Amino acid sequence: MGFNCGIVGLPNVGKSTLFNALTATANAQAANFPFCTIEPNVGRVAVPDTRLDDIAKLAGSANIIPAQLEFVDIAGLVKGASKGEGLGNQFLANIRETDAIIHVLRCFEDGDITHVEGSVDPIRDAEIIETELMLADLESIDKQITNMTKKVKGADKDAAALLDVAQKVKVALDAGEPVRTVDLSDDELPLLKKLQMITSKPVLYVCNVNEDDAAKGNDFSSKVADMAKAQNANMVVISAAIEAEISTLETADEKAEFLDSLGLEEAGLDKIIRSGFDLLSLQTYFTAGPKETRAWTIHKGDKAPQAAGVIHTDFQKGFIRAETTAFDDYVANGGEQGAKEKGKTRQEGKDYVVQDGDIILFKFNV
Predict the structure, then answer these.
(1) What is the pLDDT of residues 239-271, one digit of tens each?
(2) pTM (two decimals)
(3) For the residues of 45-63, what is the DSSP string, one character each?
């Protein structure tokens, strides 16, 4: 199960610097888990999770495999992208394939780095990109409504339900509101996915600041924080320059010392990765044994058979039960055997909703 976040932003905001730091970080992690660069603008990175080390130590695991998140550097966005300006068509095609949007905003002044709009204003920049995305969605939904209307006249019942959702989407876009603001029922949400609306995707705002502002942010990032709060969106503050520097350091101790010298508790990339994970409503469960401790990615609310299917479809098809131990119980009792002896390991069935941090051994029969 792969999940990815598209990194967008106007020219000269630090987007590519950030992506290059991500990719360098991923290459540095390659010794610990399978990594591959699928294309020049795509990279996968490990999701930071200290629980892996605790579990692996207790399980005596030879290897540790973290959960992964994919980042896509979306190229070609300028004003007019929805009409094909720059690499507009390529940009729109790429971003439709992502699960969420990471929107990098320039929140620093630098006379040596020109801004495409002539001045630094992250709120304006965010509105430019949001407008381009909404215009692209509006053009797409108009075409889809025309096609659906024809199908409904032909007594296509499925098209009628989809048309109803499409019309709600169009009302929002006509009013200048992104699709993610549309109030839809649980039954309508799967239909929305079929429409492939870009502005239906969740957004994480990343404020790229100067090194001196990395710890506390600045006036620009404060304005973005207010905007994100009003939109019920997430935001993080990072310095792409600092992240580029961190990506060149070889050891964890060197990175920790460098961060400490800047008054930072953690790397900005770690904040982005975790926020991206949360943005997609994802969570982690673990499998553990002598061979490996591994983190598996599922959606919040997934039940045990669905979680088993992430490992292999046969696990889901032949699901019998899930032998489950909560992380805290696993650690407190010294691992699998101790948890079992203390009665902390449960036998869960098909209706069990997997919790973040569960350590699970699936029983199945095919």
Answers:
(1) 988 988 888 888 888 988 999 999 898 888 888
(2) 0.82
(3) EEPP-THHHHHHHHHT-SE
